[in-house]
Structures
1.
Amino acid sequence: MNREDPGFEANHNHDHCMESALSTAKDLCRERKQRLTPIRELVLKLIWENHQPMGAYELLPALAAAGFNSAPPTIYRALEFLQEQGLVHRIASLNAFIGCPHPESPHRSGFLICSGCQRAVELDTAPVHRALSESASELGFKIAHETVEVVGLCADCQSQPGETADA
Amino acid sequence: MNREDPGFEANHNHDHCMESALSTAKDLCRERKQRLTPIRELVLKLIWENHQPMGAYELLPALAAAGFNSAPPTIYRALEFLQEQGLVHRIASLNAFIGCPHPESPHRSGFLICSGCQRAVELDTAPVHRALSESASELGFKIAHETVEVVGLCADCQSQPGETADA
DNA sequence: AATCGCCATGTTATACTATAACAAACCGAA
DNA sequence: TTCGGTTTGTTATAGTATAACATGGCGATT
Ligand SMILES: [Zn+2]
Ligand SMILES: [Zn+2]
Ligand SMILES: [Zn+2]
Ligand SMILES: [Zn+2]
């Protein structure tokens, strides 16, 4: 546990990062008496391998290649399970799914999404949540769920020529 | 201009609210030399009439009823125009569109969405933006666009029996 | 070990959301 | 009036997600 979130750093140890996420997932599912079946584990692995938001249909070919059925319900069921366990999050503005770097406890999620390199990192949403809570409570609104997805350019991509900060 | 944003108040003057939005839209388009054609105006009217986020395909029948072609491109083109002019916003987490209460100038948008009555109100996102900017700048991330969509229960719906704050 | 029931997966079909591509009509400026 | 760009019509298709029911595997209980 307590893995590092590599953020937008391109040169972190990908393999370690992924293995660590999978191992944490196994531990958590065992603790919770949930079944991390081969399909579910494979989907989680694929998401971490790519290390960027992945569309459901992008994942299907790899499922087929691994010998599983690859009709849409297969992948959506796996994604549903992984989301319920907090192992992946859905990014609504991209129709895509990404691994959660700290699935041990449920939490509000928010993302910075780089339009240059397509990577996304999970934000600490506490400050955003405080701001939202304040606005909401003025209206007597009771928050149940927050979607916070910010598109822009990461530090690396800002220094690449040709990248502009358009969404 | 300077219309009131009725927020979650159920008993505001709907007709006035809608007429005002349409009249503002006409003014803005004239100023900008953009053409608020009958289809575009009708789509905007339908969105304001319902006064809640509307899916593209929910709007199509009314287009057909008004004698227009009602194939999907018709509605998406109108919505694209209205978004470009800032007259409507898209809510990604709902795949839906809603009228903007202050389209005079471009702005970041954010929404509180009531899961009880399906209404949505546009937030003042300045405080949220400050919080996001701070988090982003720590990572050297340059923000281009923010999606902020908060689901919960409005004050009215909290007092209705049977409503819970689940998203 | 056998049984039972639940959960997971397979399979087919379909709903829902959005865009591509090209033709025809319209509209406004020169 | 003519021209050229914009808007709309039309057909087709891409992309995202779920319904519904059958089948199979796994694990708890006996
Ligand atoms: Zn997370
Ligand atoms: Zn980047
Ligand atoms: Zn707005
Ligand atoms: Zn409400």
2.
Amino acid sequence: MIDRIDRRILSILQEDCTVPVAEIGRRVGLSTTPCWRRIQKMEEEGVITGRVAILDPKKVNAKVTAFVSITTNQHSEDWLKKFADVIREFPEVVEFYRMAGQVDYLLRVAVPDIEAYDSFYKRLIAKIDIGDVSTTFAMEQIKNTSALPLQYVAAEKPRAEER
Amino acid sequence: MIDRIDRRILSILQEDCTVPVAEIGRRVGLSTTPCWRRIQKMEEEGVITGRVAILDPKKVNAKVTAFVSITTNQHSEDWLKKFADVIREFPEVVEFYRMAGQVDYLLRVAVPDIEAYDSFYKRLIAKIDIGDVSTTFAMEQIKNTSALPLQYVAAEKPRAEER
DNA sequence: TGCGGATGGGAAAAATTTTCTCTATCATGC
DNA sequence: GCATGATAGAGAAAATTTTTCCCATCCGCA
């Protein structure tokens, strides 16, 4: 189980995973070793799935975000598998959801500009037959974080009477 | 400028930033020092904005994704500032865009379940008067990566005749 | 009372990052 | 053609950090 201290460790690591373990320990009131062991455990359990570098979209020329809503009449397992495989080939697609409601699928696409989006779109529809597509562009990214909320993590270690 | 080697370094670091510099150097055909210096430079220039731990949404009980489309008649600078400040207080909101088109703002919200979304929604509208709100839920996250596409990064070092 | 499991701590070993010094290459000006 | 300075690469050493090892403490329970 994840306790209060683990949660604080996760909070630190979600913001900046270059902080030395000794410093994390200091902040959460532990020495290096137990702090290190907690981090190890959370990696083994899959709570922490990895550590990655975050890039500036402007600096890598991918500052335009497009949301692509897809409504299709194709609903077979096979078609979805094919679709998912095609999408995975496009690094421009950074998020891909199957939706409830009117829209069947939603993509978030990162490109330099509208022209590049159009080129992406043509390459996409050349690869697979999708249905109705509707695209909207973001003017401004006001917040975009990889940090998930931690207030919902499963409660403290269950006490004896709860087991 | 970012050259071919820098791009390969970024590609590695976007997937996994725990790879030792010596190993990155080996993969891109450089020794440790020049590879380290390239990474340093990209951090100083702000190409790399940070390194973070990625958590498993299931394991931290935030596996439900809701997209919230907001249409408002409030368009003043002040209102947006207030709105942005309110949003930043909610760790459930992981993405926040100002949009072109019909919808004015789009939020992506991470919560454990529909009930938690409803609670979030009530807390949000208690804090600020927003206009029309429409929420759709994702059934499945097929792809979600922090890695931006790198094929658009500004061209190779300009050669003499191009300057 | 004593045992086993879980958790914390200090110190040492191992690995990695960071610095320092030295070369090679190349475009440029003389 | 040849010095010169800027740019980029390399190896070795120093500094820092991670990782391991061994031991102490606490707690529930038989």
3.
Amino acid sequence: MRNLTAVVADDHQLIRDGLVKLLNAYRGMEVVGEADNGISAVTLAKTHKPDLMTLDIAMPHAQGIAVYTEVRRWSPDTKIAVFSGITSVALMRDLYAAGAHGMFTKRSDISEFEQSIPILLKGGRVISADAAAMIDAATETTSLSAREQQILSLIANGQTTKTIAKTLGLSPKTVENHRSNIMSKLEVGSMAELLAYALREGLLDSQNQL
Amino acid sequence: MRNLTAVVADDHQLIRDGLVKLLNAYRGMEVVGEADNGISAVTLAKTHKPDLMTLDIAMPHAQGIAVYTEVRRWSPDTKIAVFSGITSVALMRDLYAAGAHGMFTKRSDISEFEQSIPILLKGGRVISADAAAMIDAATETTSLSAREQQILSLIANGQTTKTIAKTLGLSPKTVENHRSNIMSKLEVGSMAELLAYALREGLLDSQNQL
DNA sequence: CAAAACATAGGGGAAACTCCCTAATTGAAG
DNA sequence: CTTCAATTAGGGAGTTTCCCCTATGTTTTG
């Protein structure tokens, strides 16, 4: 009796194979689709509306939280277990806030995920030990306000003070003040150090893939 | 008859499982050790001196080329197939220069690796299609001179024009000119973009691995 | 050898950044 | 209700980038 469906999305074939095997071994569950990029992940979610979906948040063609929210939009009842290979703390934090059901890193013990399946299917939430530790560590070091984080992210994406001011509808002087506050909070003395910090913490949107 | 030995080093359990299964299925081969971090990878290489070793270059405790060279030192006859999950072009280039036998990305088709095993065992070299494309793309874009690369690296590590000038014993103006040339070569228009590029390419010393 | 690339160093000006202030409004915490 | 943090916005001075030049000596390459 197979009444539970699952979709596996990951661009690493080995990981995909492992997860498919694991999910197919789960009683009553069948993997009905596999995706190796963000776009087909969303498509599969739309067509199959699976009960469970594993989602890598770093795949070609569409990255990060965008894929998550798209899947969510087209199949709101699907329970989504996010697997992050890259350890982008900011992304994890966002997904946590966006309400991902499961959060695992690819370094997590796989049995952790296996044991989580029934919980996830019931609508529960599971955050693996190492993912939780990562989020904690991040939130404690990040004493930046929401606005400051937003502006830091824009800076890290190569935007200048002026363009940031324009996109946010603020005075350039305000943006400058925020940046100044960020720098004193993070104890850095130049854009270079600030950038190094920001990029280290994974605040880049697009090109952390290469 | 099992006369070939192999060691699998990868911090992702799913990947490890997949590779172990694949290698054990190879005629006459047996996986005699698994490592989930750089240190135990080196230890296993030292104790087992396997014929073949798969090596992830982004693992906890010791990263990148250091692990490769250590393995090489303790077991020079072991054929090493490098798997890179993170797409650090600089690292790939270095490993290529250091003479890694096999180079695959985790996005590679696994059959590519499977078919490569006999070639690797004979001492041949195999670079998967996508890894080769990556290296080509990198070497063609990186037209920076030695001095320019050095200065870019210093910039990426948070040094200012002045301090760079002092450490290199140059005029600040010279450093500035180099930076300017770098920026026009890389087609970026600000420190922010330059930093983004540099960090992406893995020019940071310590913490580009997070 | 000649040409090209590289490394060195500087002038000058517009723009951006860095750091010192003040100050009004808002919303949350005690 | 009061205090505190956050957000907004600005003044002003000094420094650094950024981008345009010129110029000389060396090294590499065709």
